[in-house]
């Protein structure tokens, strides 16, 4: 979708930038690549390649932003509150990062959230501060090579500084031609109602086309925090409610999705989830969806109605035997049981619908392409469980729905052993947990299989078993719960820097929920190490926990080893809040949008903890700058300077930072 004119090969013959550029792109993908990371869960989910109406006669009358960028390198997108502007920016960043990682394009995305700007001015320093992993060196090189994709979200959030920010955006764009830019804003408040216009010199202004909402609210996300045991049942209820809409919606007469009952619809969408999981997809191209549906509607499988149509290839069906049985029963089935001269339709609702329309089942099977087309159009026209995120590409409204339906499909065909084998694959963890919460599953046997399979060094299966035990509820015998608790106690909470490194490097994010749960019974030193581990794991649900831990003034009576810029630091005589601040500082440098959480934490932290963290970071930062000529340029210097200034501002309220060095 990107124009070739603005995406050339990197001019880096020595390979100096290969690692920083790769790390930066990976961080953009990590932050923006997940569908619902940056979109408020209370908002309706919308397609993220929403169409816009450009205000230029030489532009398409209606198109997507990538299509518009192919003709004009600077685009200003105007939309009201909750219209999807932030989701659009996240989507553009994620797609550029994905293309870069795959080697199909070389544009380097830089995301600027106006709400995080200290000064309403867009320049290289401001962009580099919000992209600390790449830093100003990568930014300047990308701009010189015309490979920078600059995405500015929320021009209107500058408040009284909006005019100054707008002028700086115009100046920046003029100074760096050939680099595509997208800026989003709300309409201006002044002017004639309905005619307010927003303009940026050199930009094509485009208005977001209002999108029909899908009324999908991921309530399970916050309800499950209160009661984790209900998570799978909450998601199951949400999925069934979305599936029921196909019956409640006013679809045209004879609509296929409307004629299917709830079980059939669940099987159909479960097979889609299984395909996406198998291919490790969060978006399914319409061609793949059509191929899946076409295979399901193979005429040879219309033996027992749609339930047989929805079976998978690995479910062995003796069609020859079924045909023989059908031949033997033909005379009985053809009899008119009620004497009205009509044969009763057989099989599932789809077959009954076909008979009611006066068509033979074979005729419907022969029109496979037409049937596939109808199903896709019904999904596209009544988006809910599946959403067309961008033209020709579908995804589930929530990734949890995809994982749950995939678990349902595995349970249906008795493939739980495959999930046990996939225990080390983070892509399968959510599916494994949901499988344990499905009532038809023998949760105790499933969890035992996970525990018995945990033969490797990394206790991933034990951590999975702990999460499975939560959703299984009271279906587990007390002895099994005691076994899980005993094995889990050997993993969390961490008791040394070696345990922390082990959790971060060998176990991974699956340890996050168990670490949070273990905080209640952990000692002060264990809580300190837990804070460091949560920060290193980049476990998003833990960010709020770390903000609350920053206010903890419980003393830690033993030296704690932590890491700052990958260098060990021995910290003595501090409180737990100190280690939570250090963890959030590390997160803020890796995930710029999380810097607001760090600012909340420094307002809560005890003064002694904040003073100690400021002194430590300031000293180490000065040493890094002094070694810069030897080790190469420092990429995050602007971001560190801003965070230090924020800490200094809070400390100045009570006399400023101490002169003593951090012990």
UniProtKB/TrEMBL annotation:
Q: What are the Acidic residues biased-composition ranges?
A: 323-341
Pfam families annotated for this entry? NACHT
Region (Disordered), start-end ranges: 1-23, 320-361
What superkingdom heads the lineage?
Bacteria
Query: Ranges for the NACHT domain?
Result: 73-187
- Please give the Gene3D superfamilies that the UniProt record associates with this protein: P-loop containing nucleotide triphosphate hydrolases
This one is known as: NACHT domain-containing protein
- Organism expressing this protein natively: Sorangium cellulosum (Polyangium cellulosum)
């Amino acid at each position: 979708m990107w124009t070739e004119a603005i995406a050339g090969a990197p001019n880096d013959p020595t390979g100096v930038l290969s690692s920083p550029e790769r790390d930066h792109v990976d961080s953009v993908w990590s932050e923006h690549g997940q569908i619902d990371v940056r979109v408020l869960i209370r908002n309706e989910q919308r397609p993220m390649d929403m169409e816009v109406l450009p205000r230029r006669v030489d532009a398409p009358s209606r198109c997507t932003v990538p299509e518009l960028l192919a003709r004009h390198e600077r685009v200003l997108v105007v939309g009201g509150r909750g219209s999807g502007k932030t989701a659009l920016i996240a989507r553009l960043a994620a797609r550029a990062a994905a293309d870069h990682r795959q080697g199909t394009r070389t544009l380097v995305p830089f995301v600027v959230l106006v709400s995080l700007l200290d000064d309403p001015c867009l320049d290289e320093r401001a962009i580099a501060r919000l992209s600390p992993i790449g830093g100003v060196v990568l930014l300047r090189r990308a701009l010189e090579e015309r490979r920078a994709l600059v995405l500015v979200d929320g021009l209107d959030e500058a408040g009284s500084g909006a005019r100054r920010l707008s002028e700086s955006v115009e100046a920046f764009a003029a100074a760096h031609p050939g680099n595509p830019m997208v800026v989003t804003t709300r309409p201006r408040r002044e002017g004639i109602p309905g005619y307010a216009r927003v303009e940026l010199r050199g930009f094509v202004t485009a208005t977001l086309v209002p999108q029909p909402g899908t009324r999908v609210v991921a309530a399970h996300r916050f309800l499950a925090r209160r009661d984790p045991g209900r998570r799978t049942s909450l998601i199951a209820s949400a999925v069934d409610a979305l599936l029921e809409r196909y019956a409640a919606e006013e679809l045209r007469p004879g609509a296929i999705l409307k004629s299917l009952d709830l079980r059939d619809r669940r099987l159909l969408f479960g097979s889609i989830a299984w395909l996406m999981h198998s291919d490790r997809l969060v978006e399914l191209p319409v061609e793949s969806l059509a191929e899946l549906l076409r295979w399901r509607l193979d005429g040879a499988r219309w033996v027992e109605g749609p339930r047989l149509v929805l079976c998978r290839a690995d479910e062995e069906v003796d069609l020859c035997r079924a045909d023989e049985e059908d031949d033997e029963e033909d005379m009985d089935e053809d009899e008119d049981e009620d004497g009205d001269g009509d044969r009763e339709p057989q099989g599932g609702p789809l077959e009954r619908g076909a008979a009611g329309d006066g068509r033979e089942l074979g005729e419907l099977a022969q029109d496979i392409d037409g049937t596939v087309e109808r199903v896709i159009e019904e999904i596209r026209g009544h988006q809910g469980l599946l959403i067309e995120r961008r033209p020709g590409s579908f995804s589930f409204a929530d990734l949890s729905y995809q994982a749950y339906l995939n678990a349902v499909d595995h349970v249906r065909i008795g493939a739980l052993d495959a999930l046990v084998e996939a225990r080390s694959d983070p892509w399968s963890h959510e599916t494994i947990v949901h499988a344990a919460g499905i009532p038809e599953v023998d949760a105790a046997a499933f969890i035992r299989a996970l525990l018995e399979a945990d033969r490797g060094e990394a206790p991933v299966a034990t951590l999975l078993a702990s999460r499975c035990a939560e959703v299984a509820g009271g279906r587990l015998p007390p002895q099994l719960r005691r076994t899980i608790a005993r094995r889990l106690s050997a993993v969390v909470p961490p008791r040394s820097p070696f345990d922390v490194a082990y959790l971060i490097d060998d176990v991974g994010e699956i340890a996050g929920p168990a670490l949070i749960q273990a905080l209640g019974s952990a000692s002060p030193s264990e809580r300190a190490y837990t804070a460091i581990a949560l920060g290193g794991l980049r476990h998003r649900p833990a960010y709020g926990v770390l903000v609350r831990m920053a206010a903890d003034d419980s003393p830690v009576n033993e030296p704690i080893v932590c890491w700052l810029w990958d260098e060990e630091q021995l910290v003595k005589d501090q409180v737990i809040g100190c280690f939570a601040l250090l963890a959030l500082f590390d997160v803020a440098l890796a995930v710029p949008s999380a810097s607001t959480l760090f600012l909340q934490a420094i307002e809560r932290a005890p003064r002694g903890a904040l003073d100690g963290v400021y002194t430590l970071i300031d000293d180490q930062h000065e040493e890094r700058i002094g070694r810069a000529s030897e080790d190469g340029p420092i990429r995050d210097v602007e971001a560190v300077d801003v965070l230090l200034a924020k800490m200094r501002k809070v400390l100045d309220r009570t006399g400023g930072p101490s002169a003593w060095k951090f012990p």
